[in-house]
Design a protein that fits this description.
By secondary structure, the chain is an all-alpha fold. The protein is 66% helix and 0% strand. Bound molecules: zinc ion (ZN). Residues 75, 77, 79, 82, 84-85, 118, 120-121 line the site of zinc ion.
């Protein structure tokens, strides 16, 4: 799932939520909540400040590796001081949103940029895979939400929604 396409999907969904007809539908609030959930995830995992997400992703696997539940090393590089081998997230990936953005690029680009300069970082490769899987899930959720919103708008237009509360 292309990241720009995913952002478009989010924006399209947000626009659909502004339809005046939707205000008369009993599920309007639930749609808003589903949208906020998906939009938050998109921001935390792919587009915005991903440092917290990467941190959690990394620590979970580092603990597994330390306790012997994971065989694959987190990084295969030669550097004995490599932070990824010592339980640390590299500085470049820990920095906050503003710096990441200042360097140009989204969270996902920061991860792939890091992998370019440190290609043995198995764990970063895995984080990128995980992001891709989550992106597919989010795209599915936005599309489903769009279908549900469209159906709700149609129901209001067709007068299939009990709107007595709103109009009396
Ligand atoms: Zn390394």
């Amino acid at each position: 799932m292309d990241q720009e396409r995913l952002i478009d999907l989010r924006d399209e969904t947000e626009d659909m939520l502004k339809a005046t007809e939707l205000g008369e539908h009993p599920d309007a609030e639930a749609f808003d909540e589903r949208f906020d959930d998906a939009a938050d995830k998109l921001e935390q995992i792919l587009v915005g400040d991903i440092s917290e997400w990467v941190g959690r992703f990394y620590r979970k696997r580092y603990h597994r590796w330390q306790s012997g539940d994971r065989e694959k090393p987190l990084c295969r590089c030669e550097n004995p001081r490599c932070p990824l081998k010592r339980g640390d997230i590299p500085y470049r990936l820990r920095r906050r949103d503003s710096q990441i953005r200042a360097d140009g690029g989204t969270g996902r680009e920061v991860l792939s940029g890091y992998l370019d300069s440190h290609p043995q970082a198995v764990i970063i490769d895995e984080a990128l895979d995980k992001q891709a899987a989550l992106a597919t899930e989010l795209a599915r959720e936005f599309r489903q939400l769009q279908r549900d919103i469209a159906a709700a708008i149609e129901a209001v237009i067709d007068g299939r929604v009990d709107d007595t509360e709103t109009h009396n």
